[in-house]
Amino acid sequence: MKFNVRGDNLVVTDAIKDYIETKIGKLDKYFKENSITANILLKIRGNAQIIEVTIPTDNFILRSEEENEDMYAAIDLVLDKLERQIRKNKTKINKRNNSNKFKEFNFDFEIMEEEEEDSKVVKRKHIEMKPMDEEEAILEMELLGHSFFLYKDMYSNDVCVVYKRKDGNYGVISVN
């Protein structure tokens, strides 16, 4: 695995870079190809040390972000999260692997800790979207206690999703 480590308004020391390559390098056992590149971004927001890891493959992207007061702890947490993502989706990827689409994965690893469960749809909901603006959609989302809300924009008639970001701000995705 190749590494592209960069810092956003901070200098990445050799010690941190070596630690990242050692820890994230453990994910090599899940990939057959050595041409996989892990893009790692280190940031600081207040007292929080943040690491974002993105591993693009030919057919999908593995991505995780963690923050902690200690960068080394954040690196450990992000590694655990990425391994959980790979293990959780092993069955789904294996089913699709028959078409040789996911040739970059090595499926010879064993899962000891967790049993796999097939996820299923447990609830379906039909909604009627009334036209509203972003502020009204945010208010509705907050009233419902959800982290996202689907609505129809009153100005553009686009279907939009407003969502709460980790930093406490909001994002909007629109589909026209």
How would you sum up this structure, described in words?
- The chain is α/β, with parallel strands linked by helices and 176 residues long.
- The chain has two domains: 2-99, Double Stranded RNA Binding Domain (2-Layer Sandwich), CATH 3.30.160.100; 131-175, Sigma 54 modulation/S30EA ribosomal protein, C-terminal domain (SHC Adaptor Protein), CATH 3.30.505.50.
- Helix content is 27%, strand content 30%.
- The protein is built from four helices and eight strands, in the order E-H-E-E-E-H-H-E-H-E-E-E.
- It has helices at 14-24, 71-88, 90-96, 134-144, and strands spanning 2-8, 37-45, 48-56, 61-68, 131-132, 148-153, 159-164, 170-175.
- The protein has a four-stranded mixed sheet with strand order 1-2-3-4, with helices on one face. It has a four-stranded mixed sheet with strand order 5-6-7-8, covered by helices on one side.
- Helix 1 links the parallel strand 1 (2-8) and strand 2 (37-45).
- Helix 1 packs parallel to helix 2.
- The longest helix has 18 residues, at 71-88.
- The two termini are 39 Å apart.
User: How many H/I helices?
Assistant: 4
Share of β-strand residues = 25-35%
CATH architecture of the largest domain: 2-Layer Sandwich
| Integer average pLDDT | 82
Q: Can you tell me the number of structural domains?
A: 2
The neighbouring-strand order within the major sheet is 1-2-3-4
Q: Which CATH first-tier class of the largest domain would you pick?
A: Alpha Beta
Please report the distance between the alpha carbons of the first and last residues: 39 Å
Strand segment tally: 8
The biggest beta sheet is recorded as:
4 strands, mixed
The radius of gyration is: 20 Å
Order of SSEs: EHEEEHHEHEEE
Structural class: alpha/beta
- CATH homologous group name of the largest domain: Ribosome hibernation promotion factor-like
- What would the principal axes of the Cα set say about the shape? globular
Task: Give the helix proportion (percent range).
Answer: 25-40%
Low-confidence stretches: none
CATH topology of the largest domain: Double Stranded RNA Binding Domain
